[in-house]
Amino acid sequence: MNYSIFDFLTLLGALGFFIYGMKVMSEGIQKVAGAKMRQILRAMTSNRIKGIFTGFFITSLVQSSSATTVMVVSFVNAGLLSLMEAIGVIMGANIGTTVTAWLLSIIGFKVQISVFALPIIAFGFPMLFASKSNIKNWGEVLIGFALLFMGLSELKASVPDLRSNPEVLEFLSAYTDMGVLSILLFILVGTVLTVLVQSSSATMALTLVMAHNGWVPFEIAAAMVLGENIGTTITANLAALVGNVYAKRAARAHFIFNVFGVIWMIVFFTPFLRGIGYYIENTQGISPFAANGAEAIPIALSLFHTTFNVLNMLLLVGFVKFIAKTVEKLVPARGDEDFHLEFIGKGLIRTPDISIMEARKEIAKFAEITSRMVGFVQTLIEKRKDKKRAKWMNKIQKYEEITDRVEVEVADYLSKVAEGNISDELSIKIRGLLSINHDLERIGDLSYQMSLAVQRKNESNLWFTDKQIENLKEMFKIADEAFEVMKTNLSMDYAKVKVDDALEVERKLNAKRDELRREHLRNIEKGHYDVMSGMVYSDLFLLLERIGDHVVNVTEAIVDEV
């Protein structure tokens, strides 16, 4: 057989062509329907049947179970879905991903849609230059659709002509008559291929092409399909390695669900395939097991893929609670979760709409961290012993480093979201979140400056008078009110936020600052405490008032964003 390295690279290029087309189409559909998908998921209850249909519907739309799983994880993070609800959606996504196989089997192998690909691109390309983002997104969908089937056409042309090369078939036949071992071997092959290609849909397309061209028999192709079901969960687990605890739990649930399905299918593999073959023979007039039955294999594989996933869902739908408890034990919450991004997972693709929602949740948590940090400063002021002050100084310094890191990571995340093709409305939201993110980091900086001021006071071997501490505590109390308003506003629907409460607390904080300043100047004038000691005291209440300014800036940015 004359099959060169160039031919092999051509095959890889065709596979890349197919995957790129799928990516462009999937992202276009997600942009078009992103907000609607969010509304659908938000409307879900704990009804598992609704969850399954939702997962099926969305995966059928975006042609990617991984994209659906990632969106589901995002909503679990945001508190809009529980883990049990998410598992239901994932079950539906497993069925939805089989639509790709039917699409390829019925259209890709029956109709030469690649002939219409260039005219479709001719129609979609001008849409990319439209002023309305929705029209641009539809242009991406059309171009992605055309590229996908052009890639499939190239894929079919790039697979070697194995019918004319029986020596390759003889090589494969050495591994196809070992019973259960053959099944396990080709399950492994399907798993590895999916992990390498990073797309179960692409691996399914490759399997369909190989079976259609007579490369592998029906039973071996079916075993590879089972492997692809496992491979797609490994891809999700690899992505979740850099995600948060919720991403890991959802990925583990997906893995358990699919692996269990493959296990029971191995037990019933032969009779199950014979049933599929019998049905195809009676409806198509040719058996996928026949020597000349390669033409029937794509439809038979698609039927096998769908039937298997539907039966697996029916078997496990009653065990959702058990799966949820199992993954919670397998992936316990980290003790130091406060010091990691919790709602934003790295390495996972999301729609801009969902990404912004996740960033909002992360920023709400960021606000909680800065509020806690200001509380540490108040505690520091009340500690007179050097050892206890050193403990709280170290804690404040650690939190200052955390706030710096969180600001950078959230800003980087939002910047990457902004790099995509987003609407003007989303662009305004991103600018607002970046402004809030910066204000929160400044609160952390100012809190740290306050701790350094206290440290200077300590080094001068002087401490605050009881009256000074009492005055500062009163101002901290008003600052706490401001933080509560800010945290409430950050955790609610931004469209419902009003700036009035935040401005009222800021006025109280400014009034208290002015009162303390007047009193402080009188005490300096009367010599109640020396100038150097009084400077640290005045620095503290002035810094606390500046913190209040940034707190109210956050609410104003929320209102301006809507």
Furnish the topology, listing elements before pairings.
Layout: H1 5-42, H2 48-62, H3 65-77, H4 83-96, H5 98-108, H6 117-124, H7 133-158, H8 166-173, H9 180-197, H10 200-212, H11 218-240, H12 245-267, H13 269-284, H14 297-316, H15 320-330, H16 352-382, H17 386-419, H18 424-459, H19 466-491, H20 500-526, H21 531-561
Helix pairs in contact: 1-2, 1-7, 2-4, 3-4, 3-11, 3-12, 3-16, 4-12, 4-14, 4-15, 5-10, 5-14, 6-7, 9-11, 10-11, 11-12, 11-14, 12-14, 12-15, 13-14, 16-17, 16-18, 16-19, 17-18, 18-21, 19-20, 19-21, 20-21
Can you walk me through this structure?
This protein is mostly helical. It contains 21 helices and no strands. The chain has helices spanning 5-42, 48-62, 65-77, 83-96, 98-108, 117-124, 133-158, 166-173, 180-197, 200-212, 218-240, 245-267, 269-284, 297-316, 320-330, 352-382, 386-419, 424-459, 466-491, 500-526, 531-561.
Q: How much helical structure, as a percent, in the residues? A: over 70%
End-to-end separation: 65 Å
Element-by-element helix/strand order = HHHHHHHHHHHHHHHHHHHHH
Our estimate of the beta-strand percent is: under 5%
Largest sheet, in brief, is: none
Mean pLDDT: 78
Structural class: mainly alpha
Radius of gyration: 30 Å
Q: Per the principal axes of the C-alpha atoms, what is the gross shape?
A: elongated
Q: Kindly state the number of beta strands.
A: 0
Tally of separate helices: 21
- Ranges where pLDDT stays below 50 over 5 or more residues in a row are 162-170
Task: Count structural domains.
Answer: 2
